[in-house]
Write a structure and sequence with these properties.
The chain has about 230 residues and is mainly β.
């Protein structure tokens, strides 16, 4: 994953921005190493950690969005009579034909797609992203609540071919990320990454509320502050 992110940074360069700004696309890993022990309802360390990919986008107004997937593309525009190439971030797949790819594969330009299977959204308007409360800054938190209804396609209790599992259970996930450092905009510096603690509370999977926790580390792979533009 680390080498892949470095590859993306080289193809999708990040422009040095003002101190302590986090605008752009961030990608990284969550390492879950604590989980609720059902027998005594306490959070305990696990023998083997479980990794999840996370994608975050921060817009020009510092609004943070948790993403399910995003495709890095580019668009050619004429500005003052000069041809200019502008990089874009697309979460709406229906818009992809309007843009050009940025890497050549089998003689064709294609986009770079990042995605995660760890987060699913139930929404009538957008199933690819959700807004998170809070700010990405040292000592600050961002959080959101994800609701998966009993008929959601990825509900873990629902199974098409099992007579007892035609319908799932309503599941609610309360997610919180706490940041322990501020970013340095030098991509050669380790502080170019953001790190912190991840916590999640889950209701609906069990009669008791479940908690999982761990650490996360993310890297900025693009400074584009607008989605689907």
């Amino acid at each position: 994953m680390k080498h892949f992110i470095i590859f993306i940074i080289l193809l999708f360069p990040v422009v040095v921005m003002a101190e302590e700004t986090c605008q752009g696309l961030w990608s990284g890993q969550i390492e879950l190493d604590q989980v609720t022990e059902i027998s005594n309802n306490t959070v305990q360390p696990v023998k083997h950690a479980f990794d999840m990919t996370i994608l975050l986008h921060v817009d020009k107004n510092n609004v943070v969005r948790l993403l399910r997937h995003v495709t890095m593309m580019q668009k050619t525009e004429m500005i003052d009579g000069n041809e200019t190439v502008r990089r874009v971030l697309i979460t709406d797949d229906s818009l992809l034909p309007e843009y050009d790819g940025i890497v050549r594969r089998d003689g064709k330009l294609t986009g770079i797609r990042l995605g995660t299977l760890a987060f699913g959204f139930s929404s009538d308007t957008d199933t690819t992203q959700t807004i998170m409360a809070g700010t990405m800054a040292e000592g600050q938190q961002i959080s959101c609540t994800l609701f998966m209804d009993k008929n959601h396609p990825t509900n873990p209790f629902k199974h098409l071919y099992h007579p007892d599992h035609k319908q799932g259970k309503d599941i609610t996930r309360r997610i919180e990320l706490t940041f322990l450092n501020v970013p340095n905009n030098d991509p050669d510096d380790e502080k170019f990454a953001l790190a912190g603690q991840y916590k999640e509370e889950i209701t609906g999977l069990h009669k008791n509320k479940l908690s999982i926790a761990g650490s996360f580390k993310i890297q900025r792979v693009s400074d584009v502050d607008t989605l689907n533009d």
